[in-house]
Design goal:
single chain; 76 residues; alpha+beta; SH3 type barrels; 2 helices; 37% strand; globular; binds zinc ion
């Protein structure tokens, strides 16, 4: 399992272990907080996952947000 201790940013695209009922398995991160907001790329539905549950369910990053590569730190 992927240890996702990395900082998450809105705009990151991730692949989850369990596909959504619609068949899609790629999700865009739309909210980063106590809960992680995910937008299904396939059907456009939004879900909220507690950080811990997200970390268990995520497989890998498909694309990092431009913010993730800047390395500026800062809140979020
Ligand atoms: Zn979906």
């Amino acid at each position: 399992m992927l240890a996702i201790n990395e900082k998450l940013y809105t705009g990151d695209l991730v692949q989850m272990r369990k596909p959504h009922p619609c068949g899609g398995d790629s999700w865009e991160i739309v909210r980063v907080g106590a809960d992680i907001g995910l937008l299904c790329e396939t059907c456009g539905r939004r879900v909220l996952l507690p950080r811990r549950k997200f970390a268990r369910g995520v497989r890998k990053f498909l694309r990092r947000s431009p913010q993730a590569t800047k390395g500026l730190g800062g809140p979020g």
